[in-house]
Amino acid sequence: MSHELKSFDLAALDPMDEARRQIEICNACRYCEGFCAVFPAMTRQKAFADGDLTQLANLCHNCRGCYYACQYTAPHEFALNIPAALAEVRVDSWERLARPQAVARAFQSHGVAMAGLLVVALAWFFWALTALRPDSGAGFYAHLAHNTLVAIFVPAFVLPLALIALSVRDYWREVGGGRVRLAHLLRAFDSAARMKNLSGGHGEGCNFEQGDRFSNRRRVFHQLMMYGFLLCFGATASGTVMHYALGWEAPYPLWSLPKLLGVPGGVMMVAGAAGLAWLKLRADPALGAARVWGGEMAFVLLLGAVALTGLALYAATGSGLVGPLLAIHLATVMVLFLLMPFSKMVHGFFRLAALVAEAGKPAPGGGGGA
C-alpha cells in the first residue's frame, strides 16, 4: 500500500493491512518508544504477521498520546493514526474470535438498542415470575425463590464464561503465546492492577478526551469501575459462601460482608460508569473504532445500570418498590452476563492475555522477558 495516501477511511480498508502499514512506519521512527507497552513490543521485529498485529492491538489502551506526539499524522502523506488503526484490529479480534461471530458483530454496531431491548424483555420476564411468589422467604427472596434464581443465573454466567475461555484460547494460539510462568502472571496482573498503560509515557495520563493535554481521569474512572466490579463480585461470592457453608441466608444487614463490599463497590461502579460515559462523549471518535461506538457505550451504560439498580433495590428494602426494582436489576445483570462474550467485557480477558504474553517475550535488544 502506498505511503502517499493522504486521507482515508479506516473502515473501508482491511484492518490488518492498514495497521501493518502504519506499524512499520512507526517501527522505523520509534519516537514514541517509551509511551506504552505497544512501542517496545513492536521493536522486536521488522515484519509483522497478523498474530503480531493482534497482540499489539490488544496491548494498546487507546490513550492516544502517540497520535498527538506523531509528526506523521494527516496532512502528512503517511497519514498515521495508530490509535484508530489498532482499535480496528482490536475490535476485529473480539468479533472474529467470538462464538457466534454474528452476535458479536451485531452488538458492536447496535449495542445500545440490543442491550436496551433485552433489559426490557427480561424485566418483564422476571416481573412475571414474581407472580409465583414462594411460600416463604425474606427480602427479595419473598418475591423470587432462591432456587429459581440459581437455576436461571448459573447457566447464564457459566456458559458465557466458557465461550470467553474458548475465545482467549484461540487468541493465545493466534498471537503465539508461549509457556506461562508465575513471573509472567505477576507482571501482567501488576500492570493491570495499576493500569500502568493508561498513565502515558511520562506518568501524566492519557490524551483521550483533551487532545494534546494530559489527564489521568480515564485511568481513575477505569480503576473505579474495575475495583468496584471486583468488590461487587466479592459481595456475591461471600454471600454464596454464607448461604451454603454457614447457613446464613439473605437478606444481610449493613455490617455484613456482602453489604460492606457491595455497597461501596456499587457506588464506585456508578461513578466509574458516569465518568467513562462522559469522557467517551468528549473524545474524538476518529481516534478509535468509530463503527463500534454504540457497542462500547452500551457496555459502559449497562455496567452503570447494574450497579445503580442494585443500590436502588437495597435502598427500597421493605417498600412496595422491591418487586419492580428486583425485576429491573435482575434483567440488567442477566443481560450483562449473556452479552459478556460479545461486548467490551471480553477486552479485559484479551488485554490480560496480551499482558501475560508480553511478559513472556524477550526484552527489546535481547534478554529474557521473565
TrEMBL record:
Transmembrane segments: 111-129, 149-172, 224-246, 261-281, 293-315, 321-342
InterPro entries the UniProt entry points to: Citrate_utilization_prot_B, NarG-like_sf
Keyword set includes Chaperone: no
Keywords, ordered alphabetically: Membrane, Transmembrane, Transmembrane helix
NCBIfam families: CitB
Protein's recorded name: Citrate/tricarballylate utilization protein
Annotated organism of origin: Gemmobacter megaterium
